[in-house]
Amino acid sequence: MRFLTAGESHGPQLTAIIEGLPSGLPLTKADIDPWLALRQGGYGRGRRMVIERDEVQFLSGVRAGRTSGAPVTLAVENRDWRNWTEIMSPEPGGEPRKKALTAARPGHADLAGGIKYRHKDLRDVLERASARETAARVAVGAVALKLLGELGIEGVSHVLSLGEIASEVPFEWSLAPGIADSPLRCLDPQATERMIERIDRAKAEGDTLGGVLEMRFRGLPVGLGSHVHWDRKLDGRIAGAVMSVQAIKGVEIGLGFDAARRPGSAVHDAVFMREQRYSRDTNGAGGLEGGMTNGEDLVVRAAMKPIATLMKPLPTVDVVTHEAADAARERSDTTAVPAAGIVLQSVIAWVLADAVMEKFGGDTLPELQERVRTARAFAETY
Ligand code: EPS
Fold first, then answer.
1. What are the structural domain ranges in the chain?
2. Annotated binding-site members
3. How far apart are CA 48 and CA 309, in angstroms?
4. Per-residue pLDDT at 329
5. Three-state SS for 52?
6. pLDDT computed for residue 332 by the predictor
């Protein structure tokens, strides 16, 4: 499967085209819109999220609530566009346009993108670098999650830490339904309160905050990905997808960096035969061995840096005058860590759905389901 996204933060809409979905996948707005709403939420978001009410429109490939096998086009409108029609107009003229941005923001794509694409109005960079694009990836990820769900695979994301404040409540699947009730998608109510205070302080100080997210998937069949070639290893593909999300600076799978500090006996997951099934008591590998799923839960963590647009700006240089300047202040969020969890869950879901289609194939959902059933039965008796 493959997908493309297009669209600027303040353009008319975000668009995604997915190619390679099987036919017969039940798919409606109700499968996508709740994920878009979750991505818009989380304490610490800015005023833009009051303007937007993200919802998907199917422009192709879905009819009568099912995929046809044709490319699926998803569109998410930018309501804010109405306030930006002149600034964003594709027609020539009007330069310099209002809201031209020349004071490159440290940590943003502004300066490198301006030099690379030879723009002096850095809006031509930031409009596409903006994390608004992640709405399209969540729409795509929701389709991937739907496909995975039809195969008995589910995913979840939660916030492990925000700034220097960490959750003390370890993840359990029984706690997963409560995550959406937390304003920060965090399992620890006490830590959540301190995180909220910390966000309020950062906002008052004109600063921003990052955090660490954890994503988990269960129900994965054994053998997605492969050990035989570097670009087929699923850990590499997952890490690549995670690192492609705006503001992500680190990724780990299973014990991750902690594995480097332990002896092998305290890292690897002993295998037992119990009731004629392969079984393990630990999951340090995070569900991946040799670049393949091993049937255990997939556990991925990612570090998000603080958003680069600071209301109390850092020093920078104006790319037109070459004078020292305060970095541009663009309306922004104090933190988008909870939203990032939804985005990361979406991009991982895509990689998993893609790996499922690669291993099992099938033009229709029933064919795919049958093949996955057969593979699961084989793994159980192997
Ligand atoms: C963003 C800046 C803000 C965020 C935006 C990402 O938008 P604006 O400049 O319109 O206030 O709200 O995020 C979204 C629009 C979104 O949907 O997540 C940026 O510069 O990256």
1. 2-381
2. 39, 45, 128-130, 246-247, 290, 305-309, 331
3. 14
4. 84
5. coil
6. 84
Kindly state if the Cβ of 137 falls inside 6 Å of ligand 1: no
Across the range 279-285, mean pLDDT stands at: 97
pTM reported for the whole predicted model: 0.98
Query: Which residue has a Cα nearest atom 4 of ligand 1?
Result: 332
Name the amino acid, one letter, at 46. G
Q: Whose CA is nearest to atom 13 of ligand 1?
A: 132
The CA distance from 7 to 350, in Å, is 20
The rounded distance, in Å, linking the Cα atoms of 352 and 346 is 10
Paired residues of 159 in beta bridges:
213
| CA-closest candidate to residue 308, choices 125, 47, 45, 109 | 109
CA of 132 to the centre of ligand 1 (A): 5
Q: What strands lie across the sheet with 165-166, from one edge to the other? A: 165-166, 154-162, 211-218, 298-304, 248-253
Residue numbers belonging to the annotated binding site for NADP(+)? 39, 45
Fold type of domain 2-381: Chorismate synthase, AroC fold (3.60.150)
pLDDT one-digit tens code per residue, 42-86: 999 999 999 999 999 999 999 999 999 999 999 999 999 999 999
User: 320-359 in b/e burial notation, b at 16+ Cβ within 10 A?
Assistant: eeeeebebbebebbbbbbbbbbbbbbbbbbbbbbbbbbeb
CA of 74 to the centre of ligand 1 (A): 20
Output helix, strand, coil percentages for the chain, rounded to the nearest 5: 40, 20, 40
Nearest CA to ligand 1 atom 10: 48
Q: Using CA atoms, how far apart are residues 189 and 186, in angstroms rounded to an integer?
A: 7
Q: Kindly state the helix (H) or strand (E) to which residue 34 belongs, with its residue range.
A: helix 29-40
Q: Which two tokens stand for residue 98?
A: 């209002």
Angle 365-381/337-360 helices, nearest 10 degrees? 80
- In one-letter notation, the amino acid at residue 298 is L
- Identify the bridge partners of residue 2 per DSSP, sorted by sequence position: 19
pLDDT tens string 318-368: 999 999 999 988 788 999 999 999 999 999 999 999 999 999 999 999 999
The closest residue, in CA terms, to atom 17 on ligand 1 is: 132
CA nearest neighbour of 21 among 345, 382, 350: 350
